[in-house]
Amino acid sequence: MIRSLEIGKRALLASQRGLDVTSNNIANVNTPGYARQAISLRPGESIPVGGTMLGMGVLVTNIRQFRDHLIERDVRTYTATQSYYQQSQTIFQRIEAALGEPGDQTIQTALQQFFDAASELASNPSRMANRQLFVARAADLASQFNRVSSAIADLRSSTADRTSQDIERVNQLLAKLAGINQQINATLDSSGQPAPSLVDQQHQALEELSAYLDISVTRAATGTVNVSSGGMMLVSLDSSLKLRVEKNLDSSSGATTLRITAQKQDGTSVGTLSPGSGELAALIEHYNVTLNPAAPSSQFSVARELDRLASAFADRVNTIAAGGYGLSDSGPTPPGRPIFVAAGGGPLSAGTIQLNPALASDPALVPTASAPGEPGNNAVVSAIAALASDSSFLDTLTPEGYYGSITAQLADRGAGASDRLSAAQATLNQINQERQSLSGVNLDEEATNLITYQRAFEAAARVVTVTSDMLSTIVNLGR
Fold this sequence. Notes:
- The structure is a single chain.
- The chain is of the alpha+beta class.
- It has a domain at about 1-65 and about 440-475.
- It has eleven helices and 13 strands.
- The protein has a four-stranded antiparallel sheet, covered by helices on one side. A three-stranded antiparallel sheet has the order 9-10-11. It has a two-stranded antiparallel sheet with strand order 1-4.
- The chain is rod-shaped.
- The two termini are about 20 Å apart.
């Protein structure tokens, strides 16, 4: 009889534990990162009774979670890929907005208007209104270059700021994962398994971390994890590295590049980290290349290409203008008056190009003639206007053609980032659906489990009641 009571008690406890876990699943149906749980049961030990072996009911061995670590790995991989292309797409879109594309306030439009004004001036170089229009269009073109250059510089600065913010969050996540490892080791259950809530927190932190950089996760039997990226161990047991973003100055160009360095908690340097993928990889790549005016010529840099266009354009126009005369110029030697100059006296670039202030003050000084004292001579300004169709301007392209090649390359890269982002999102959605079907809480299934455990509890309670009644009967027989 006592054995029957013990069996009934164990059945009651198992059913109660099942009800607890099911209730917990239902309570966390909308909790991010939560994985469905279930109890693991095993038969109780058998004991000899009357020459036979009698089972002693049921025991709860542990609470298991429904997770597939291969699926979790794929989620992290495609989260990094999606974040990389999401950030790349955003940067390309912001560059296009800086260029004013599509729109009518662009360098392309300013080039067209400049050449139209040059042609108009060539038709009547002595007409002051034509000279004023030419000066205004030259100033507008320089202003467009300046505006775009400033916008790209601002975008580059905000990219550096975003990188620093991301690094701060990554450090928080690395420290959190090390802390979870420590908690797991301190709270293992009797079967050596970690608390499910800690595992949920761990997976959620790993998934968020993968949005910033490509990570590799190695899991121990106890549930602790080692996390590495780019061949560098970031989290090991209860310790983690601290990352920082550094700016390196190129003394020859004056431009800066970003890199991520790692150090131990005591400040000892570990080395330079390459994120591989994720948002940080995109931010550093675009800061160091796409937005860098001193990027290598083998890589596409919109900042460098705009500087090259502005410099080459100003040089060609100024070279032609150097042999020209204004309305009031005299003497056998041309004054060599440039149309464009660099602000501050530095090298010409998209950020420094500006109209010669002398021409802004007196449009009569615009060099239009090839000889002095000939107001109707348009040889010089006609040569400037002819640059519009000069296919040898840069890389066998006209000025407008070269600018068009910049915007075309930008559009191609932006479209490529968008296409790859869509592909990564589609794959990630599919993987998340697989994970949801395995790890997600199904309320219909949990409702069924509630009924199952309820019926089991009622049956176990009946066993205890019947056994208790039988014991009472036996006791009463002895009175």
